[in-house]
Design brief:
heterodimer; A: mainly alpha; MetI-like fold; 11 helices; globular; B: MetI-like fold; about 0% strand
Amino acid sequence: MERTTARRTWWKTVLGLLFTALMLFPLYWMVNVSFTQRDAIRSGDVFPRHFTLSHYAVVLHQQLPYLGTSIVVGLGTVVLTLVISAPAAFALSKLYVPGRRALTFSLLVAQMIPAVVMALGFYTIYTKLGILDTLPGLILADSTIAVPFGVMLFTAFMSGIPAELLQAAHIDGASHWRTFRSVVMPIARNSAVTVGLFAFLWAWSDFLFASTLNRDGGSLRPITMGLYDYIGSQNQEWGPLMATAVLASIPTALLLLVAQRYVAAGVTAGAVKD
Amino acid sequence: MSATVDRVPTPESSTERFGAADTTRRRHLRPTVWAGLGFLAPLLVYLAIFYAYPLYENVSMSLHRFTRATFVTGLAPFVGLDVYREVISSPLFWSTVRQTALFVVVSLVFQYAIGLGLAVFFQRHFPISGVLRGLFLVPWLLPIIVSATTWQWMMDADSGILNRFLGLFGVDPIWWLNAQHSLMSVTIANIWLGIPFNLVILYSGLQNIPADLYEAASLDGAGAWRQFWSLTFPLLRPVSAITLLLGFVYTLKVVDIIWIMTLGTGSSQTLATWAYGMAFGKGASSIIRYSQASVLGTILLVIALVMGFVYLAAQRRQED
């Protein structure tokens, strides 16, 4: 039985590999170009026949400050997102809150607001406050991408925590805060990882806020801006450009390797109710 | 918040505190309300400062005539809907709306069709299917700027791999990124970007269809094609509706993929990139036009709001 099904599905594996290869081809191409010598790039070899690491040598030195900034911004966004969204979700799912439906609806719409609109609003506010081109400003702006998502994901998960568990804590004399911290959050750890992961990825990938609220930030700009500098320059150097692109992809690759199931959980959350 | 522990609660009253909100309208309501608001306060403050206020600024700017000089002089006369009239009557507006519609609709149709095809393909497990499905996520999680630059290089007219590949079949090189073709090119890249999202959501929708339905259908002699059209597709409709709706919203607000590939030039200008260009004096619009940009922003905002209601209605129907 086992063997017949295996025989029946081997062609699906082949086909699946083919689809995946097709889908990931652009990424392969990026890596390929990043390892190809400058003179050979335009000949379009299918693999780096004229192999070189020189693009990385150039780029690593240049982009290091930007990479550092991106990590700081990413981590800052994660912390801010978690601190705001987890308690709010606890209130929405387990405590009585007036106007809960309206709030849930606003969070839904918040996720749909175009970032251009937000950026324009932020720009005038930041100009008044004088926090244009600063890291806290960018962290605040980046967190707006993740906070509504975080609240909704946490709320969905926390609604599933049995009420008996919280009652038990309550009977033992635990305050709401204590219950939240010592009962709810440990159970919701996986959700926290998912929310944090996406907050980091979105902050890391952000181009729009960085290019508007932080464009004159010098080396205090994220890696997306480091990459954008190359694109903006007149004669595009594709080797270093692609090497930078590869560097900017590392966190994604890493997180996918280490935390694939959290990623899958985040993608489906909110969109599909089971 | 610790003030709530004023007595040892009976199990019944604890249900009130932690349980469904609808039953709490009786006696011991107050402490929990305060606790709830306490936990909610950071979010409320946050939403007010970082959502409501920027949005208010945006709408307000669309009703005042803002110029670069406004930041120096502080003068921005109230002009009502004048700027709206100017923007909507400008010849660029309707062509941009048409391009935006084309970009959104074509992206959605292909993303959805390909995503669904792949979801059905992955529905039954086969060796390494999980790994391959995971790999399909990669394009979606990468920074868009990375994907966009890669596509830009692949679509290079002289030495891009796409033209090289087409050349094998005797096709003349296509100027992918020129004014005429840029809409098609950014749409292709955007379809590629959206496939993973569609795949994951539709795949999880498929997992919720009971397997015995398929067994019954196949006992009745329905082939794979028949099973798809009379079983999978109808049962997947609620999930499809939500996928397309979210896809619509995400596609409508896309800026970075287009901006990085073409700076929103030529036929690839959409409402979102136009607003971005005018707001920050980039690309085709080297002059900053805050008011005009915020008019477009407000239009996009209204569409988002409407879509929020539609989403809510769709989700309600799914629950029924």
